[in-house]
Every structure is written in structure tokens, then in C-alpha cells.
Amino acid sequence: MTATLVTTPYGKLQGTEEEGVKVWRGVPFAAPPVGKLRFRAPQPPQPWDSVREAFSFGPVSHQPVSTSSTRFGGLSPEYSEDCLYLNVWSPAEAGESLPVMVWIHGGTFVTGAGSQPMFDGARMARNGNVVLVTVNYRLGPFGFLHLSPFGGDFASNAGLLDQIAALEWVQGNIAAFGGDPQRVTVFGESAGSMSIAALLAMPAASGLFAGAIMESGAAQSLPPQQAQEIAAALLAELGLTPGSDPQLLDHLPAEQIMEAAARMTYKLSGEALSMFFQPVVEPATLPADPAEAVAGGAARGIPLLIGTNLHEGNLFFREERPGESFGQSLKSLELLMGIDDLAELADGYPKSWEGQAEFLTDLFFWGSSIAFAESQSAAAPVWMYRFDWTVEGHPLLEKAVHGAEILYVFGNLHLLKQYGLSVTPEMQRLSEVMQKTWTAFAHHGNPSIANLEWPQYRRDSRATLIFDRETRVVQDPDADKRRRLFSAQANWPKVFSAGASDSRG
């Protein structure tokens, strides 16, 4: 049985016990990335002598201040470069070494934190008998500015390196918290899921986890030239010319860098969908595009659970929200995905906000996830899901929008009150099924549970578990649409072509 006082190689940590779960918050897994460590690879944390209280969440990475009451529960967290902290939940009565689930949050690589209330790990740890870890990583320009070409010891993909540092901390420390370092599953949503796609391709992450769950996001990366142009644009916004000493970046106020990033983003894209800060393909950290690497067997032997929500795009395109025209939106999506011309495929969609939402769902989320699943299915077992649950008449959740599954996975349904909803028995049952399958995957490398056999995803059957009022397996859902997605363009990037060779059957 794990005590709330644990000893790590860095010092003693005092946690708390809350409703049958032991919790340690704000645990440093790397040194503060400030000063000479800004824009550099993370370094180990400094040891401490006295007992360190792990009662409160650490600061979160610099990001646009949240105007939503849902992201941080109406509270205003501390925003800081000193943000490399993680949180651990462990069942109080655990009598054995338990599987570990490490959550990587989403937020388009510019927002979010492991301390968001929707990611509270207590219910999942207790109900699923797992040790649950949530992590922070550097975001926006601090985590995803492609600076390695500028010389010195600048790192690119610093945010991904932070995630690897957290996973290395898990390997070296989690046994003291009741976890088994040989049974680590990474799971994440949106940018967190895209991060996992990158981790599956990164040599430095090899051996740090045994399974992966990817929710609503597949391989996504920038080519080096485009990423270098973005970095140069931000440096110019900061007044740094090509001849300037890049070491000046060490001394600029963090707020000045954030303001410059916001100006640059608006100048380059306005209000359009864009991701200027994201993983970049570069030799030292991510030597190949994640989709190509996985298609080549980089993640051989790592079981994968992957899926999307039925109406992902309806979070971004809604009737009451002014936005781009269909043509402008199409150009934004072409830029985002690195595809030259989507006009032919787009002809099958209404030229309206509903059409924009559906096209984004099908192409950016669903299609890329199918391609990724196909690639990995040649190297390891893969399971595919789709989240279809909706709430009739609700202004947002009448669609299964991007991120809607998270509260059900974590079992934090009480937070639905923020959306004006009360928890129904149907919602509770759905959450229990999702949580049981996710944690079964962590325990056994297979998400099947009692009374629910979940077949593997294979190209000849494409079994997909639909989470809805009736949880059921469907073979090749929306087959005609899938065929059209994969046959429309011969010049699509590797994110699709890697998995498209047999996709038309």
C-alpha cells in the first residue's frame, strides 16, 4: 500500500488522501525552463532536502488567458515559464503494482494544462485501479518554435521533449506511487493525441510507454522550411534581424514574446484556423514525419486505441459564430494539412457553416485517424472507436463535438453543470463503459470488457465501436465516404497516403 509520503531520487513528497485516492499535485519533473534554459531541452529537477508538500497544482505554461469558465473551472491559474509539473492519483488501497496512464492534454499546442478540472484523475484511478498522471508541457512559442537552425543549444520541439522528460520521470519514480513502469499507457486528446503520434515516431521516446490511446487527433507536423519561416517571422516581430544574436531571446520578458506571437499569428492568418506552433520534422528530435515513421514500423509492438467524435468540426464552426467563407476555410485547411488543392473533394459538401464543420470532421480528424490506424495495424493490434453521444436541444452538445468525450472518459460528469446539464443514468452508463474500456486497455493491452467484445480494427473489416445510447460494433461505418476521402486526391501528403494503399476496398 502506497503512503502519502513518498521518497523519490530528488527528495521526499508529501501528498494527501481524498475519498480513497492518494494525490500528489505540482510535482516537478524538470528544472524550470527559464533564463539559459528557455528554448532549450528540459533538464532534470534540482533535488530538495526537506519534505516537499505536493498539495497544490503548479503554474501552467504561458498561454492566452482563458476567458472561458470551463477550462480552469472559473479560477485563474498562475501562468509561468516555470511550468514543468505533473500530478499523480493512486488508489489508496492498491496492493499491487498498477498500470500507469499518462494524460497529455490538448489545446492546439497553445493552451491547456494537466491541472484542468476535467482532467481530475481521482475517479479514473479509483474505478479503474490505475495510477493516473497528468502533465504540463511548454506551449506556443516556448514549446514549439523551430529554433535549432539558429545555432547554439536551442532546441526545437521543446514541448515534445518536455513530454518525454515527464515519461522518463515516470519510469524512474512511479513505482514509489504504486505504479508499474513496465505498463505505461499514454493517452491524450486533440494536440495531446497529435503529440502521441509524434512520440510514437521519436527515437528518444522509445521504450517509455507500452500502449497508446489517441482521441481526436492523428499525425500532424510542419515541414522544416515552413517552421523556420514562422520562427523568422516571430523573431522579426521581436525586432531581431537575421544578424541579431539569438541569445538575446534569453533575456526578453515572457510577456513580450507572447504578445509578439499573437501579433504574428494574426498577421499570417487573421481569424482562420491555423497551427503555427506544432511539432516540426527536424533531425535532432523528430527525424521523420510521424505518419511516415509509423507506416515504416517505428511503433512496432505498441497497441493503439484510436478514434474520433461524430461532429468534431461543430466545435469550430457554428451558426452563431461568424467565420470565414467556405472558400477561405478551404484554403486554411489546405495550408493546415499541407494539401495543395481540396476543391474537388469539397464539391460534395454544402457551401455553408455546416459544410465547413462536416468537411473539417471528415478530413482533418476522421480521415487522418483512419490512415494512422491502418498504418499501425500492420505493426501492432489497433482498436477504433467513434463517439456519437449527443444531448438533444443543447446549444453545443446536441452534436458530438470535438472534446465532448473527455468528461465521460475521466468520469467527471459533475462538470456538465457548467453546460447547464444534469447527469442522467444514461450518461453515467456511457461514462462507465468508456472508462472501463480505457482502463482495460491499460491493464491488458486490449479494451474488451465483460459483455462487450471489441474486435481489432483491420482493413478487411474496419470494426469500429460506436459509443452512444447503444454501444455497438459497426463494420466500416460510412464506407462510401471513407472511399471517397481516400480516392479523391493523388497528391495528398503522407498523413493519408501511408495508410491508403488498401483504403478503397
Automatic annotation (TrEMBL):
InterPro entries on file: AB_hydrolase_fold, CarbesteraseB, Carboxylesterase_B_AS, Carboxylesterase_B_CS, Cholinesterase, Type-B_Carboxylest/Lipase
Gene Ontology molecular function: any one: cholinesterase activity
Pfam families: COesterase
Name of the top EC class for this enzyme: hydrolase
Span of the signal peptide: none
Residue stretches in coiled coil: none
Active site: S190, E312, H402
Keyword Hydrolase: yes
Domain Carboxylesterase type B: 4-473
SUPFAM superfamilies: alpha/beta-Hydrolases
Keywords from the named record: Hydrolase
EC number in record: 3.1.1.-
Similarity comment text for this entry: Belongs to the type-B carboxylesterase/lipase family.
Protein name: Carboxylic ester hydrolase
